[in-house]
Amino acid sequence: MPEKESLPEKKEESFFSSVIQKIKRVQRPEKATKKVPRDRSKMVAISVWSCLLVLLAFTLLSAFLSVNTRSVVNDIRVDANKPSKQDKPEVSVPAAENFLTGFINEYVNVKNDHESIEKRKENLEKYMVKQKESNYEESERFQLDGVKGDRVLNDYSLYNVKEGDKYSLFQYKVTYTNVFPVEKEVEKKVKDGKKEKKVKEKVTENEKAEKQLLLNIPVISNGDSFAVSAAPYFTQIYDLRGDITLENKNVMKDEYAGDKKEAIEKFLQTFFGKYASEKKEDMVYMMKEPEALGDTLEFGEIKNVKVFETKNGFEAFCVVQFKEKENEIPITENFSLSLTENSGQYYVEKLKHQ
Question: Is the entire prediction scored with pTM above 0.85?
Answer without folding.
Answer: no
